[in-house]
Amino acid sequence: MSPSSQFVKMLILSIVFFVPLFYLVSFLKSKVSADLQARVGPNRTRLAGFFQSIYDFIKLNEKEISLVSKINQILFLVMFALIFSVIPLVQFKFNVLFPVLILFLISFVSFLIGLKQKDAYLHQFALGYALQSAIGLLPILIVLLSVMLTSGTLSVDEIVKTQGIFFWDWHFLSNVFLFFGGVIFFVSGLVFLHLPPFNGLFSYDYFRQGLEGRFSGYYYSILKLRTEALQLFWIIFCVSLFWGAGNYSFDQATTQIGVLYFLTISIKSILIFFILNWFEKMTPKLKTIQISSFVLKVLLPMSFVTLIGVTLCL
Amino acid sequence: MSHFFEVGPFDPVLPGPMKIRMNLKGDVIDSAEVNLGFLFKGLEKEAEKRKWKTVTPIISRLDPEESVYSELLFSLCVEQIAEFNVSDRATYVRLILCELNRISSHLKFLAIISRFSGCATSSYYFLREREFMLDLFELISGARFCYNYIVPGGLRYDVTEGFLERLSEGLEKVATKLPEYHNVLLNNIIFKKRLSQIGRISKEQAIYFGISGVNARASGVFTDERYGFYKNEYEKAGFESLVRNESEGADAYSRTYLRLKEIEQSVKLINQFVKFVGQGDFRDAKSTNIEIIPAGESFIKIESSRGTLSCHLVSNGNKKAQRVKIQTPSNPVMNYLPIYLKENEVEDLPLLLSSLDLSINEVDK
After folding, report:
1. In the 8-state DSSP scheme, what is residue B315?
2. CA atoms lying within 13 Å on the CB side of residue B234
3. Contact A128/A200 with Cβ under 8 angstroms?
4. How many CB pairs under 8 A join A and B?
5. pTM score
6. Is there a contact between A99 and A85 (Cβ–Cβ < 8 Å)?
7. Is the CB of B13 inside 8 Å of chain A's CB atoms?
8. Tens digits of residue pLDDT in A101-158
9. Binary contact (B190, A283; C-beta < 8 A)
10. Chain B CB within 8 Å of residue A205 CB
11. What is the CA radius of gyration of chain B?
12. B window 166-195, beta carbon within 8 A of A
């Protein structure tokens, strides 16, 4: 099979895997959140509100757009393209730094969207966003160094294959520091990407509703899509690196082993997604400066401890 | 880096239509200026233009969320001049409604502050219980806001059949949920971190600016008008005012904590008041068709859920009042607001404002 046809096959498989999982998780999230918050949740569209997300997307795209003159459309198009560019990354045939680079670009474009608004308040918050992202990236890189030392490679595909589905096959059994490293990596990623519950700027309930509150229509839907899609992608990425995605290959998707791979990664991702969602819904939000302080005082020293621990255990 | 920043007149973080102009130095508020008057109703003058018996519906618009207090205040002033006799039954039903409104108002406060701190879930819990309080008001008066139920001489109607039973049921529900409120919000470490050390009001400042209610009591100022007009009734029910004694003044967390404690206290008070309701007339027969009130003057203060609410009423013996002057608890806080906001971070603005439990309806009366 030629490399181009191989790539097309992978792309189709990624879309077949990622998009339904994303939709299912969004639907379950809305139902579980409603149940947590003692309210009904989506119930108007068919199948207990299953089509609500589609309805919302259509409704948002039909809405009148405010603040058109201040919106830089190119940045939104770039953002939209970058969100879709994470979909092929779930096949993990890349160097581990490549997804991090894509996520860094998304983060940078988000910062530019805030900076492009002719508003002193948003300029200030865009700078806060940049600060938070920069600080959040440091523990990620240190933990990745630990992973490289343990696995001897930075290829995600090979890191995935070195550990099995069950916890006794994970890295942490051979090296307990790496398990905590995984937790640090996961939380730092949420900080780095401004994902809930560390979404100072992009939170809806924040001061003047953050950046999302500034935009309407499809601009809003792109920002919302960014949050939801990146959250799921980051969970899948962390499960693969640290918590056993299964020593199978993505290109075996059509076989029985491939189905097992999908099930493993989906169940684990959904489980972590709901734990995260519960935490997001039940706790208040920290300020950007408090989040940065948390990274510097807790996550960064712990990531150094991970690196030293991993090195000593080698 | 300093820059100018303006919020309002219509913004979700504000307690109502108002404008705050701020000079920021980085994240910190250097100076603030408050502009009001976007919701001016001319309520006092409107009350002076109307006949005595048609004033109550207007007065209840002072703050639709807390119309029990404004109705009660005006009724007490009229009763003092006209010398109406209010039965024990009517008095205790009035007090029950006052405490019920206090619970409802504090629950709304908690819902708002939890929303602004980013904890959406607990705000739904507070609103769920508040709905039950509003249902009770609907049962007794037919309205969820602006009740028009307390009138000079007593109550407009007698208590609805089954109201007291449903009231006990509702209070039990709130009482069982109180530990949950503590766990979900006040004992939450992130909530504490967000609200502690912000929006400090010292005891001296509270006294100097005439701040009343929970905002003052949290700072250690003993001010509670429940020891005023209805002192005997409250003492009979075993009431003791809750005052926090903090040497450095109260922060936003202390004020939130005290409001939750007041809910607990109000539940106990209502349970006591229910025992004293008894049988009797719900309205003085003389007051059913008021045309003229004798010439006179009265000044009454009561404790609303936000603080001291007072009214000065002058009658010259005509069909209409000569002067109606109302002082609301949010007014003094508005004067204090520029000093209060100073040296706080702009990111904390929603929490700073919501922790004061302000009402622009009251201010722009």
Report:
1. E
2. 18
3. yes
4. 69
5. 0.89
6. no
7. yes
8. 888 888 888 888 877 766 666 676 677 778 888 899 999 999 988 888 887 887 877 7
9. yes
10. yes
11. 21
12. 184, 188, 190-191, 193-194
